[in-house]
Amino acid sequence: MSLNKPPGANVKQAVPFFHVSDMEESLRYYVDGLGFGIRWKWIDEGKLRWCWLENGGAALMLQEFRKEGLNSWQPACKVGEGVSICFMCEDALAIYHDATARGIKVTKNPFVGNRLWVVSFSDPDGYRIDFESPTDVPEETEYSPQNK
Fold first, then answer.
1. Measured in Å, how far apart are the chain's first and last C-alpha atoms?
2. Which of 108, 119, 115 is nearest to 137 (CA)?
3. Alpha carbon separation from 132 to 40, 68, 88, 95, 115 (Å, rounded)
């Protein structure tokens, strides 16, 4: 291993890949609820099995696991349990307002942590999705319209 060349100089983007139990339910959550758009998709035997979603410069992939037959999988718990993804953005509170207006619930009220507004959601499979943006609001402040 060379210490002179920065590791990962060829790496361009990290894209989380989530196995989901119900693609239609996940798409309602991410596309209709959180405002992601579908960039690419794979349809197998007439069913959407995989897709690449984007929101601004961030992306994630979803693939519904087969429940029967070849390459099937039966997870022991919610597949997203213990997984947390943070999306850095210009205005996390705008995501909060848009998503909650579409009926998506936050896991707790937005708050300030590490000089960032933190807006947390949990998808249908238990994946924790955080949107965060810089702020000068004091640490541990909970969101109210007066302290945006």
1. 47
2. 115
3. 26, 38, 5, 9, 10
Neighbours of 45 (CB within 10 A): 5
Domains of the chain: 17-66+80-147 (3.10.180.10)
Q: Looking at the DSSP assignment, which residues form a beta bridge with residue 54?
A: 37, 59
- If pLDDT is split at 50, 70 and 90, which confidence band does 2 have? low
Kindly report the pTM of this predicted structure.
0.84
Structural tokens at position 100: 């909650």
Count other C-beta atoms under 10 Å from residue 50's C-beta. Answer: 16
Residue 57 host element (H or E): none
pLDDT tens digits, 61-107: 999 988 777 777 777 778 898 999 999 999 999 999 999 999 999 99
How many angstroms separate the CA atoms of 120 and 115, rounded? 15
- What residue type is 19 in one-letter code? H
Using CA atoms of 20, 125, 75, 52 in order, give the dihedral in degrees to the nearest 10: 20
